[in-house]
Input
Amino acid sequence: MKNKINELFIDAIKNIYNNSDEKNKIITIMEVKKILAIIDKSIPNADSLKRNLINAIGINRVEITNAKKITKHFVISDLDILENIENDMEIINYLPPFIEKINYMISKLNNGLYKEVSLKMLIYGKPGTGKTTLIKYISKKTGLPLYYVKSANVISSFLGDTQKNFEKLKKDIEKVDGKGIVLIDEIDSILGDRNTATNDEYRKIIGAFNIMLDSIKKNAIVISITNNVKLIDSAITRRFNVKLELDYVTKEEFEKALINKLKQNNIMFDKITISKIIKLIEAKNVHNLNYSVIDSIVEDNLFFDNNIYSSLFANTFDFKFNYDNLKSDTKKLESIGFNTTDISKILDLDRRTVKNKIESNEIYEK
Output
Protein backbone atom coordinates (compact mmCIF):
# COMPACT_ATOMS: atom_id res chain seq x y z
CA MET A 1 0.00 0.00 0.00
CA LYS A 2 2.84 2.39 0.93
CA ASN A 3 4.62 1.71 -2.38
CA LYS A 4 1.38 2.30 -4.29
CA ILE A 5 0.93 5.69 -2.60
CA ASN A 6 4.54 6.61 -3.48
CA GLU A 7 3.93 5.65 -7.12
CA LEU A 8 0.75 7.73 -7.28
CA PHE A 9 2.56 10.70 -5.69
CA ILE A 10 5.41 10.50 -8.20
CA ASP A 11 2.97 10.10 -11.11
CA ALA A 12 1.04 13.17 -9.95
CA ILE A 13 4.17 15.32 -9.86
CA LYS A 14 5.29 13.91 -13.22
CA ASN A 15 1.93 14.77 -14.85
CA ILE A 16 1.99 18.30 -13.43
CA TYR A 17 5.56 18.82 -14.64
CA ASN A 18 5.05 17.41 -18.15
CA ASN A 19 1.81 19.34 -18.74
CA SER A 20 2.98 22.71 -17.43
CA ASP A 21 4.19 25.81 -19.22
CA GLU A 22 7.73 27.06 -18.58
CA LYS A 23 6.81 29.14 -15.55
CA ASN A 24 4.83 26.37 -13.81
CA LYS A 25 7.56 23.83 -14.59
CA ILE A 26 9.99 25.99 -12.67
CA ILE A 27 7.52 26.25 -9.76
CA THR A 28 7.24 22.43 -9.77
CA ILE A 29 11.02 22.12 -9.73
CA MET A 30 11.19 24.44 -6.73
CA GLU A 31 8.63 22.28 -4.90
CA VAL A 32 10.65 19.15 -5.71
CA LYS A 33 13.70 20.89 -4.26
CA LYS A 34 11.78 21.34 -1.02
CA ILE A 35 10.89 17.63 -1.00
CA LEU A 36 14.53 16.72 -1.57
CA ALA A 37 15.52 18.94 1.36
CA ILE A 38 13.00 17.15 3.61
CA ILE A 39 14.37 13.76 2.50
CA ASP A 40 17.90 14.96 3.32
CA LYS A 41 16.87 15.90 6.85
CA SER A 42 14.77 12.83 7.64
CA ILE A 43 16.47 9.93 5.81
CA PRO A 44 20.20 9.18 6.22
CA ASN A 45 22.25 8.37 3.08
CA ALA A 46 19.35 9.26 0.83
CA ASP A 47 21.30 10.12 -2.35
CA SER A 48 20.06 7.08 -4.29
CA LEU A 49 16.47 7.78 -3.22
CA LYS A 50 16.72 11.39 -4.41
CA ARG A 51 18.20 10.30 -7.75
CA ASN A 52 15.39 7.81 -8.24
CA LEU A 53 12.78 10.47 -7.47
CA ILE A 54 14.33 12.95 -9.94
CA ASN A 55 14.61 10.29 -12.67
CA ALA A 56 11.06 9.05 -12.08
CA ILE A 57 9.60 12.54 -12.49
CA GLY A 58 11.83 13.24 -15.52
CA ILE A 59 13.45 16.43 -14.28
CA ASN A 60 16.93 17.27 -15.47
CA ARG A 61 19.38 17.77 -12.57
CA VAL A 62 20.73 20.92 -14.24
CA GLU A 63 17.18 22.35 -14.26
CA ILE A 64 16.99 21.89 -10.51
CA THR A 65 20.32 23.65 -9.99
CA ASN A 66 19.31 26.61 -12.18
CA ALA A 67 15.67 26.90 -11.12
CA LYS A 68 16.31 29.43 -8.38
CA LYS A 69 18.11 31.77 -10.82
CA ILE A 70 15.47 31.33 -13.52
CA THR A 71 12.68 32.41 -11.17
CA LYS A 72 14.25 35.86 -11.06
CA HIS A 73 13.26 36.41 -14.69
CA PHE A 74 9.51 36.09 -14.16
CA VAL A 75 7.81 39.22 -15.44
CA ILE A 76 5.04 40.81 -13.41
CA SER A 77 2.23 41.86 -15.75
CA ASP A 78 -0.36 43.29 -13.32
CA LEU A 79 1.20 46.76 -13.11
CA ASP A 80 -0.32 50.22 -13.56
CA ILE A 81 2.72 52.45 -14.07
CA LEU A 82 5.69 50.17 -14.67
CA GLU A 83 6.44 48.37 -17.95
CA ASN A 84 8.85 45.47 -18.34
CA ILE A 85 11.63 46.18 -20.87
CA GLU A 86 13.90 43.65 -22.51
CA ASN A 87 17.55 43.86 -21.46
CA ASP A 88 19.17 43.62 -24.90
CA MET A 89 22.73 43.79 -23.58
CA GLU A 90 24.78 41.03 -25.18
CA ILE A 91 28.26 42.52 -25.32
CA ILE A 92 29.33 45.04 -22.72
CA ASN A 93 31.24 47.98 -24.23
CA TYR A 94 30.53 51.12 -22.27
CA LEU A 95 31.37 50.64 -18.59
CA PRO A 96 32.84 53.25 -16.22
CA PRO A 97 36.43 53.00 -14.95
CA PHE A 98 35.20 52.39 -11.39
CA ILE A 99 33.40 49.18 -12.38
CA GLU A 100 35.11 47.31 -9.49
CA LYS A 101 33.03 49.35 -7.03
CA ILE A 102 29.89 48.59 -9.02
CA ASN A 103 30.75 44.89 -8.95
CA TYR A 104 31.17 45.09 -5.16
CA MET A 105 27.72 46.68 -4.90
CA ILE A 106 26.30 43.95 -7.17
CA SER A 107 27.78 41.24 -4.90
CA LYS A 108 25.97 42.87 -1.97
CA LEU A 109 22.71 42.94 -3.95
CA ASN A 110 23.13 39.27 -4.89
CA ASN A 111 23.57 38.49 -1.18
CA GLY A 112 20.22 40.15 -0.45
CA LEU A 113 21.28 43.52 1.00
CA TYR A 114 18.34 45.27 -0.71
CA LYS A 115 15.96 43.08 1.32
CA GLU A 116 17.11 44.95 4.42
CA VAL A 117 17.87 48.40 2.95
CA SER A 118 16.37 49.43 -0.38
CA LEU A 119 18.81 50.64 -3.01
CA LYS A 120 17.71 54.08 -4.28
CA MET A 121 20.32 55.17 -6.80
CA LEU A 122 20.55 58.38 -8.83
CA ILE A 123 22.84 58.27 -11.88
CA TYR A 124 23.48 61.62 -13.54
CA GLY A 125 25.74 63.09 -16.20
CA LYS A 126 25.98 64.19 -19.82
CA PRO A 127 24.25 62.23 -22.60
CA GLY A 128 26.20 59.32 -24.07
CA THR A 129 28.31 58.58 -20.98
CA GLY A 130 26.99 55.05 -20.35
CA LYS A 131 24.24 55.61 -17.76
CA THR A 132 21.65 53.27 -19.30
CA THR A 133 24.35 50.72 -20.14
CA LEU A 134 25.41 50.64 -16.48
CA ILE A 135 21.85 49.85 -15.40
CA LYS A 136 21.62 47.06 -17.97
CA TYR A 137 24.93 45.73 -16.63
CA ILE A 138 23.55 45.69 -13.07
CA SER A 139 20.42 43.92 -14.35
CA LYS A 140 22.50 41.34 -16.21
CA LYS A 141 24.81 40.62 -13.27
CA THR A 142 21.99 40.33 -10.71
CA GLY A 143 19.70 38.36 -13.03
CA LEU A 144 16.88 40.81 -12.23
CA PRO A 145 14.54 42.08 -14.99
CA LEU A 146 14.13 45.80 -15.68
CA TYR A 147 10.87 47.65 -15.08
CA TYR A 148 10.64 51.03 -16.78
CA VAL A 149 8.70 54.08 -15.59
CA LYS A 150 7.34 55.90 -18.63
CA SER A 151 6.78 59.58 -17.94
CA ALA A 152 3.53 59.42 -19.94
CA ASN A 153 2.19 56.91 -17.40
CA VAL A 154 2.90 59.31 -14.52
CA ILE A 155 2.40 62.89 -15.73
CA SER A 156 -1.19 64.09 -16.02
CA SER A 157 -2.64 67.40 -17.10
CA PHE A 158 -5.42 67.00 -14.54
CA LEU A 159 -4.86 68.62 -11.17
CA GLY A 160 -3.78 66.09 -8.55
CA ASP A 161 -3.61 63.07 -10.87
CA THR A 162 0.21 63.05 -11.05
CA GLN A 163 0.40 62.72 -7.26
CA LYS A 164 -2.11 59.85 -7.38
CA ASN A 165 0.06 58.15 -10.01
CA PHE A 166 3.02 58.23 -7.62
CA GLU A 167 0.88 56.19 -5.22
CA LYS A 168 0.24 53.71 -8.04
CA LEU A 169 3.97 53.62 -8.73
CA LYS A 170 4.63 52.79 -5.08
CA LYS A 171 2.15 49.89 -5.29
CA ASP A 172 3.84 48.66 -8.49
CA ILE A 173 7.25 48.73 -6.77
CA GLU A 174 5.73 46.73 -3.89
CA LYS A 175 4.41 44.18 -6.40
CA VAL A 176 7.87 43.81 -7.93
CA ASP A 177 9.00 43.09 -4.34
CA GLY A 178 12.73 43.03 -5.06
CA LYS A 179 12.33 40.64 -8.02
CA GLY A 180 13.30 43.35 -10.50
CA ILE A 181 15.00 46.71 -10.94
CA VAL A 182 12.77 49.78 -11.29
CA LEU A 183 14.23 52.31 -13.74
CA ILE A 184 13.02 55.92 -13.70
CA ASP A 185 14.57 57.38 -16.85
CA GLU A 186 14.80 61.16 -17.34
CA ILE A 187 13.44 61.77 -13.85
CA ASP A 188 13.65 65.54 -14.46
CA SER A 189 10.97 65.23 -17.18
CA ILE A 190 8.63 63.60 -14.66
CA LEU A 191 9.26 66.01 -11.80
CA GLY A 192 9.70 69.22 -13.78
CA ASP A 193 12.33 71.95 -13.68
CA ARG A 194 12.78 73.60 -10.28
CA ASN A 195 14.18 76.71 -12.02
CA THR A 196 10.93 77.43 -13.86
CA ALA A 197 8.21 75.67 -11.87
CA THR A 198 7.42 77.65 -8.72
CA ASN A 199 3.69 77.11 -8.35
CA ASP A 200 1.87 75.13 -5.65
CA GLU A 201 1.19 72.21 -8.01
CA TYR A 202 4.92 71.71 -8.58
CA ARG A 203 5.60 71.69 -4.85
CA LYS A 204 2.82 69.12 -4.36
CA ILE A 205 4.38 66.89 -7.03
CA ILE A 206 7.77 67.13 -5.31
CA GLY A 207 6.18 66.35 -1.95
CA ALA A 208 4.24 63.36 -3.34
CA PHE A 209 7.36 61.91 -4.96
CA ASN A 210 9.39 62.34 -1.78
CA ILE A 211 6.71 60.59 0.30
CA MET A 212 6.63 57.75 -2.24
CA LEU A 213 10.41 57.32 -2.21
CA ASP A 214 10.66 57.57 1.60
CA SER A 215 8.02 54.87 1.99
CA ILE A 216 10.19 52.31 0.16
CA LYS A 217 12.08 51.04 3.18
CA LYS A 218 13.34 47.65 1.97
CA ASN A 219 13.12 44.93 -0.66
CA ALA A 220 13.41 47.29 -3.62
CA ILE A 221 15.96 48.49 -6.18
CA VAL A 222 15.04 51.86 -7.70
CA ILE A 223 17.43 53.59 -10.09
CA SER A 224 16.81 57.04 -11.61
CA ILE A 225 18.66 58.69 -14.49
CA THR A 226 19.02 62.32 -15.49
CA ASN A 227 21.23 64.21 -17.92
CA ASN A 228 21.00 67.38 -15.81
CA VAL A 229 20.90 66.91 -12.04
CA LYS A 230 20.73 70.70 -11.55
CA LEU A 231 17.11 70.61 -12.76
CA ILE A 232 16.10 68.35 -9.87
CA ASP A 233 15.13 69.80 -6.52
CA SER A 234 17.71 69.10 -3.80
CA ALA A 235 14.94 67.76 -1.56
CA ILE A 236 14.60 64.89 -4.05
CA THR A 237 18.30 64.16 -4.60
CA ARG A 238 18.73 63.79 -0.82
CA ARG A 239 16.29 60.87 -0.86
CA PHE A 240 18.66 58.71 -2.95
CA ASN A 241 21.11 56.74 -0.79
CA VAL A 242 23.54 56.23 -3.69
CA LYS A 243 24.45 59.00 -6.14
CA LEU A 244 26.72 58.34 -9.10
CA GLU A 245 28.09 60.83 -11.63
CA LEU A 246 28.99 59.79 -15.18
CA ASP A 247 29.83 63.16 -16.65
CA TYR A 248 32.54 62.52 -19.23
CA VAL A 249 34.35 59.81 -21.18
CA THR A 250 38.15 59.92 -21.12
CA LYS A 251 40.28 59.61 -24.24
CA GLU A 252 41.45 56.15 -23.14
CA GLU A 253 37.92 54.89 -22.40
CA PHE A 254 36.63 56.24 -25.72
CA GLU A 255 39.44 54.69 -27.78
CA LYS A 256 39.14 51.30 -26.07
CA ALA A 257 35.35 51.21 -26.53
CA LEU A 258 35.57 52.31 -30.19
CA ILE A 259 38.17 49.67 -31.06
CA ASN A 260 36.18 46.96 -29.26
CA LYS A 261 33.02 47.81 -31.16
CA LEU A 262 34.82 47.96 -34.51
CA LYS A 263 36.24 44.49 -33.84
CA GLN A 264 32.83 43.12 -32.80
CA ASN A 265 31.35 44.30 -36.10
CA ASN A 266 34.32 43.10 -38.20
CA ILE A 267 35.12 46.62 -39.40
CA MET A 268 38.70 47.11 -40.59
CA PHE A 269 40.64 49.94 -38.93
CA ASP A 270 44.09 51.35 -38.35
CA LYS A 271 44.73 51.85 -34.64
CA ILE A 272 47.48 54.45 -35.18
CA THR A 273 45.20 56.70 -37.25
CA ILE A 274 42.37 56.38 -34.71
CA SER A 275 44.74 57.20 -31.85
CA LYS A 276 46.08 60.23 -33.69
CA ILE A 277 42.59 61.64 -34.37
CA ILE A 278 41.54 61.10 -30.73
CA LYS A 279 44.77 62.66 -29.48
CA LEU A 280 44.11 65.72 -31.64
CA ILE A 281 40.55 65.91 -30.30
CA GLU A 282 41.94 65.99 -26.77
CA ALA A 283 44.60 68.57 -27.67
CA LYS A 284 41.97 70.86 -29.19
CA ASN A 285 39.95 70.51 -25.95
CA VAL A 286 36.89 69.27 -27.82
CA HIS A 287 34.36 67.84 -25.33
CA ASN A 288 32.46 65.64 -27.77
CA LEU A 289 33.84 62.23 -26.78
CA ASN A 290 30.89 60.07 -25.78
CA TYR A 291 29.58 56.59 -26.48
CA SER A 292 26.80 57.87 -28.77
CA VAL A 293 29.52 59.00 -31.19
CA ILE A 294 30.86 55.42 -31.32
CA ASP A 295 27.41 54.05 -32.15
CA SER A 296 27.07 56.64 -34.94
CA ILE A 297 30.48 55.77 -36.43
CA VAL A 298 29.76 52.04 -36.48
CA GLU A 299 26.20 52.37 -37.77
CA ASP A 300 27.23 54.83 -40.51
CA ASN A 301 29.80 52.29 -41.69
CA LEU A 302 27.48 49.26 -41.51
CA PHE A 303 24.49 50.91 -43.21
CA PHE A 304 26.15 53.36 -45.59
CA ASP A 305 29.77 52.12 -45.83
CA ASN A 306 30.96 55.50 -44.52
CA ASN A 307 34.65 55.94 -43.79
CA ILE A 308 35.17 55.44 -40.01
CA TYR A 309 37.95 58.06 -39.80
CA SER A 310 35.97 60.84 -41.47
CA SER A 311 32.94 59.85 -39.33
CA LEU A 312 35.03 60.06 -36.18
CA PHE A 313 36.36 63.43 -37.27
CA ALA A 314 33.00 64.83 -38.30
CA ASN A 315 31.23 63.61 -35.12
CA THR A 316 33.72 65.17 -32.73
CA PHE A 317 34.80 68.38 -34.49
CA ASP A 318 32.54 71.01 -35.94
CA PHE A 319 33.83 69.97 -39.34
CA LYS A 320 31.90 68.97 -42.45
CA PHE A 321 33.80 67.34 -45.30
CA ASN A 322 33.24 68.97 -48.67
CA TYR A 323 33.52 66.01 -51.02
CA ASP A 324 32.94 68.28 -54.00
CA ASN A 325 36.15 70.11 -53.11
CA LEU A 326 38.59 67.58 -51.65
CA LYS A 327 41.45 70.05 -52.17
CA SER A 328 39.89 72.21 -49.42
CA ASP A 329 39.47 69.22 -47.07
CA THR A 330 43.01 68.01 -47.71
CA LYS A 331 44.60 71.34 -46.91
CA LYS A 332 42.42 71.84 -43.84
CA LEU A 333 43.47 68.46 -42.43
CA GLU A 334 47.11 69.25 -43.11
CA SER A 335 46.79 72.61 -41.38
CA ILE A 336 45.71 70.95 -38.11
CA GLY A 337 48.50 68.39 -38.01
CA PHE A 338 47.72 65.36 -40.20
CA ASN A 339 50.31 63.95 -42.58
CA THR A 340 49.82 62.55 -46.08
CA THR A 341 49.20 58.97 -44.87
CA ASP A 342 46.61 60.09 -42.31
CA ILE A 343 44.75 62.24 -44.82
CA SER A 344 44.68 59.46 -47.43
CA LYS A 345 42.91 57.21 -44.91
CA ILE A 346 40.51 59.88 -43.68
CA LEU A 347 39.46 60.92 -47.20
CA ASP A 348 39.81 57.53 -48.92
CA LEU A 349 42.34 58.94 -51.40
CA ASP A 350 45.67 57.51 -52.53
CA ARG A 351 48.78 59.21 -51.11
CA ARG A 352 49.89 60.67 -54.47
CA THR A 353 46.56 62.47 -54.91
CA VAL A 354 46.79 63.84 -51.37
CA LYS A 355 50.36 65.02 -51.94
CA ASN A 356 49.40 66.77 -55.17
CA LYS A 357 46.53 68.58 -53.49
CA ILE A 358 48.75 69.69 -50.58
CA GLU A 359 51.43 70.99 -52.97
CA SER A 360 48.90 72.85 -55.10
CA ASN A 361 49.40 76.61 -55.16
CA GLU A 362 45.71 77.27 -54.94
CA ILE A 363 44.94 79.70 -52.12
CA TYR A 364 43.25 78.08 -49.10
CA GLU A 365 41.53 79.99 -46.37
CA LYS A 366 41.11 78.32 -42.96
